[in-house]
Amino acid sequence: MTDPRPARRLHMITWGCQMNVYDSGRMADVLAPLGYVPTAVPDDADMVILNTCHIRDRAAEKVFSELGRLRLLKQARAEAGQGMVLAVAGCVAQAEGAEILARAPYVDIVLGPQTYHKLPEMVARASRAAGAVIETDFPVEDKFDHLPDAAAPQGLTAFLTIQEGCDKFCSFCVVPYTRGAEASRPAAAVLAEARRLVAQGSREITLLGQNVNAWHGAGPDGQPARFGQLVRWLAEVPGLDRIRYTTSHPRDMDDELIAAHGEVAALMPFLHLPVQSGSDRMLTAMNRRHTAADYLRIVEKLRLARPDIALSSDFIVGHPGETEADFQATLDLIREVRFASAFSFKYSPRPGTPAAGAAGQVAEDVKDRRLQELQALLREQQTEFNAACAGRTMDVLVTGPGRRPGQIGGRSPWLQPVHMAGPQSLIGRIVTVQIAAGHTNSLTATLIEELAGA
Ligand code: SAH
Ligand code: SF4
Ligand code: F3S
């Protein structure tokens, strides 16, 4: 039977963290029953959704330059007798709300991250009404209870949001304001979604949350559980070979979770654990509520539990009050831990956050220099980590064709991209490889064998 509804085309642009990537998928899922099918370009789109990020100034500004371009497209379509519903979703929508309409009155819908389940209703209202529709409340109902179960397959590697929001209120960060209070999804819902993803072909799942390891909730047995326990339950899902999670906070890195790293084979030996700074003065000013020594202790315990674990982190340079000595303390911490990879940023003042109005703002040229120095050190460590893989054997999940003809590519347990010669028929398999060489951003390898039964 052919579908009687004419296809409507949906174009999405997604910025920001992996949670936004996941949310964009869910928005597409919620619009699919209305006949919306994804399109890669905005030109022929009946609806465009910008899923935005507010974390740094530059991230937020991109939205308005994109809106400027879309305005012309919307005008051209209107002249041709075609409509275009223009929606701004995500953290800029949440933070700026009606301000967006003041700057870009041609926007039809502004919707915060907790309202995506209401999207069909908003689209209907926008096409009926003359004015724009704004939804930026934190509704009492859980959006996950109202999003459809029938989700489009994500492929071999998938994301699964288990926790959203943040109560930590770091001095510099907008997330507690844009994503609201910390909330966990029930274990049963998480496990059901994991089983569904695996049934649709996913072998690796990355659990997502702004503070993913703060997850807590009732287990299937009704007893209260924490994140380490959830990981163990997930590891029992047949066919789920690899589990990762991001982003975690050092304060929620409890012994139960550290033990899981030692005991759960499916939990990959790679952890993104942001520290932001190595100076206790700065950590206090940032309201991180842990010290550099606390962080080093956690790393030590993790390495005891899982000797081959590799770490990545986030760093901010130039937070208000940061002196040269504070910055040096960050370099010292990096030298001590040795990171396999990292993200680093210049402090960007965000309206409404405590640090934005704090004394001791650091000059831009100082931030620039510190960032360069920090990134040079981190790059050196990443290159060393990859180079040290040469000669080792490891398991690679083959995710697709490689860079060159005759090549396939995949992911190492440490999230490194791996390229090797091999047949496309191995896509979807976990294979054992020997690493030929490590480069700054990837590894090259030779195939040894396909894992038995994999
Ligand atoms: N929940 C995570 C990270 C969320 S945001 C955590 O607690 O670590 C991702 C990263 O962006 C942060 O770790 C931080 O390094 C960076 N970031 C957040 N706000 C920033 C700001 N105002 N300026 C520069 N970097 C920022
Ligand atoms: Fe932002 Fe801090 Fe919460 Fe992370 S823990 S999301 S940096 S407030
Ligand atoms: Fe950006 Fe919001 Fe994620 S501010 S980093 S999209 S939680």
Task: Write a short abstract of this structure.
The protein has 454 residues and is α/β, with parallel strands linked by helices. 35% of the residues lie in helices and 23% in strands. Helix 9 (227-235) runs parallel beside helix 10 (255-263) and helix 10 (255-263) runs parallel beside helix 12.
Which properties best describe this structure?
single chain, 454 residues, alpha/beta, Rossmann fold, OB fold (Dihydrolipoamide Acetyltransferase, E2P), 6-stranded parallel sheet, 5-stranded mixed barrel, 35% helix, binds S-adenosyl-L-homocysteine, binds iron/sulfur cluster, binds FE3-S4 cluster
Count of helix runs: 14
Assess the beta-strand content as a share of residues.
15-25%
Our measurement of the CA-to-CA distance between the termini, rounded to an integer number of angstroms, reads 38 Å
- Percent in helix: 25-40%
What's the CATH architecture name of the domain at 8-135?
Answer: 3-Layer(aba) Sandwich
Bound molecules: S-adenosyl-L-homocysteine, iron/sulfur cluster, FE3-S4 cluster
Q: Which outline best applies?
A: globular
Main beta sheet, described?
6 strands, parallel
Give the strand line-up of the largest sheet: 2-1-3-4-5-6
Instruction: Compute the number of strand runs.
Output: 21
Mean pLDDT over all positions: 94
